Amino acid sequence: MNILLMTTCICNEENTSDLKRLISSLNKVNDINIKHLVLLQDYQDDKKFEADITNENYDLRFLEIEGIISLSKARNMLITEANDKRLFECSDFVSFPDDDCWYPEGFWNNFKKIEREQKFGLFYTDFSSKPVAIDRPVNQHNTANLVRYASSNTSFYRADVFIKIGLFDENFGVGAKNNGGEDLDYVIRAMLLTEDIYFLNSPVIGHRDPLPQFRYKYYRGSFGVLSKHKAKTFTLFYQYLRKFLIGLVFLSSKKIRFSEFKTIR
Q: CDD domains from the xrefs (predicted)?
């Protein structure tokens, strides 16, 4: 199996320490070929990032830029680089792990086993700061679970599906006009392209635990994405209405302003 991973990292002490943990987890993977493109943002030559790679199956490559750009724009830069290097042609699956994500021992072999049995075009799962081993996987995919659980760290796109999706919508994402929502938009677009979708409802990938009390910070982006796709299926329209009602709760508690219901173009 050939995997292409793309990660963006804003260079500071905390982020690069997290990135080293991700790289270390991938450096231990056997029997799977992994190509990993990493975009280092706010990069400075006097603070060069180095990684000691001992695994011949793990191909780590860096791109560097001096400034900081939005997450969706950074990922599009990585996609363009991968396309120029023709990396999609030799990849089975593509994913976008954050720099503070990591893969526990055994994850990739279990992923390969599930894929061999299920043949999915889109796979997504859950994450935790204390990830667990995959045990008796059961497919629990539905639109509600996709909206709730799918993220850059937990979503894997079969290469042919990924190519059809194309670039991220740069109107959404951390650092963009509409904060957040870039992952949700991308995975919804994948869902609309393939019926072969598998959701493993277990936290099998490592990542810091989410902070529910700060969900409102990304409301404009996620609501804007659901508004964008609401007319495409009944289940997406239902998720849009649900998100609207959540927004009213945030509005009544003064966590957001009424302007957050409008997507900035």
A: Glyco_tranf_GTA_type
Q: Does the model's pTM come out above 0.85?
A: yes
Instruction: Identify the pLDDT of residue 97.
Output: 97
CB 91 within 8 A of CB 159: yes
Provide the residue type at 94 as one letter: V
Q: Residue 122: name the closest of 106, 104, 102, 143 by CA.
A: 143
How buried is 181 (Cβ within 10 angstroms: 0-12 exposed, 13-18 middle, 19+ buried)?
buried
Domains of the chain: 2-261 (3.90.550.10)
CA distance linking residue 200 with residue 226, whole number of Å: 23
Q: What is the pLDDT of residue 190?
A: 98
Closest CA to 162 of 94, 107, 111: 94
3-state secondary structure 35-96: EEEEEEECCCHHHCCCCCCCCCCEEEEEEECCCCCCHHHHHHHHHHHHHHCCCHHHCCEEEC
Q: What are the respective helix, strand and coil percentages of the chain, to the nearest 5?
A: 40, 20, 40
Structure tokens at 182: 């870039």
Is a pLDDT exceeding 70 seen at residue 214? no
The single-letter code of the amino acid at 54 is T
How many angstroms separate the CA atoms of 241 and 244, rounded? 5
At 145 the three-state DSSP class reads helix
Share of the chain above pLDDT 90, in %: 77
